[in-house]
């Protein structure tokens, strides 16, 4: 049978426990999972491409769960072009609240028009990670709030260093 290749794209600025949860769960439903770290989106990132990618790679190698089928790759330009290049059969996205839905719905619709062979699947955020977003984690940290329960240890340290 053909191998199922999943692509989990995002900014990961920085990776949070919510992202990690999606990565572990997605890795179980595909043969290979590529985490696609977006280089060129219009957002201004706190962490450089290299930093965002390294943090993800470290978290994957640190983890004791069996996720040897997960790889990390940076990509530039159109998501569907990258998905085609790596021969992905499906795109994985995480869904938190209704507020995610509108954007994801539109993006999935447009992507399906670009390539109808590549399905987008959504994994609901786990209950304990529902409210975690990279954006709020950065804001809370900048205001000297405690973000320990939202991000892995290394990310916690790196974030606090950024706002010293
Ligand atoms: P993007 O700029 O593509 O939204 P993000 O890094 O913010 O990049 O998110 C990447 C994906 O991870 C998105 O599908 C987003 O909905 C999902 N995601 C982010 N945080 C969580 C979380 N706490 N639980 C589940 N999914 C999440």
What would you say about this model in short?
The protein is of the alpha/beta class and 164 residues long.
Q: How do the SSEs run, as a string of H and E?
A: EHEHEHEHEHH
Number of β-strand runs: 5
> What is the overall number of helices?
6
Physical arrangement of strands within the biggest beta sheet: 3-2-1-4-5
Q: What can be said about the biggest beta sheet?
A: 5 strands, parallel
Tell me the span between the first and last alpha carbons.
52 Å
Low-confidence regions = none
List the ions, cofactors and other small molecules found in this model: adenosine-5'-diphosphate
Shape: globular
Percent of residues in helices comes to: 40-55%
How much of the polypeptide forms β-strand, as a percent range?
Answer: 15-25%
Mean pLDDT: 94
Question: Can you describe this structure?
Answer:
This protein has 164 residues and is α/β, with parallel strands linked by helices. The protein is 41% helix and 19% strand. The chain has six helices and five strands; from the N terminus they run E-H-E-H-E-H-E-H-E-H-H. A five-stranded parallel β-sheet has the order 3-2-1-4-5, sandwiched between helices. Helix 2 links the parallel strand 2 (32-38) and strand 3 (70-75). The longest helix is centred in the middle third of the chain and has 17 residues, at 98-114. It is globular, with a radius of gyration of 15 Å. The mean pLDDT is 94. Adenosine-5'-diphosphate is lined by residues 10-12, 16, 18-19, 22, 93-94, 96, 100, 125, 129, 132-134.
Walk me through the topology.
Blueprint: E1 5-10, H1 17-27, E2 32-38, H2 49-62, E3 70-75, H3 79-85, E4 90-95, H4 98-114, E5 119-124, H5 134-142, H6 153-162
Parallel strand pairs: 1-2, 1-4, 2-3, 4-5
The structure holds adenosine-5'-diphosphate.
Adenosine-5'-diphosphate is lined by residues 10-12, 16, 18-19, 22, 93-94, 96, 100, 125, 129, 132-134.
């Amino acid at each position: 049978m053909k191998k199922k290749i999943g692509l989990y794209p995002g900014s990961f600025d920085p990776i949070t426990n919510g992202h990690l949860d999606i990565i572990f769960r997605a890795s179980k439903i595909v043969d290979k999972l590529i985490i696609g770290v977006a280089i060129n989106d219009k957002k201004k990132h706190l962490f450089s491409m290299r930093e965002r990618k390294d943090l993800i790679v470290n978290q994957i190698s640190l983890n004791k769960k069996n996720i040897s089928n997960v790889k990390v790759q940076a990509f530039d330009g159109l998501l569907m072009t990258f998905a085609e290049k790596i021969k992905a059969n499906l795109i994985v996205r995480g869904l938190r609240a209704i507020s995610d839905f509108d954007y994801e719905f539109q993006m999935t619709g447009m992507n399906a028009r670009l390539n109808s062979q590549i399905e987008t699947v959504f994994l609901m955020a786990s209950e304990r990670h529902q409210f975690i977003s990279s954006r709020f984690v950065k804001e809370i940290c900048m205001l000297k709030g405690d973000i320990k329960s939202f991000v892995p240890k290394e990310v916690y340290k790196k974030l606090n260093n950024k706002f010293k």
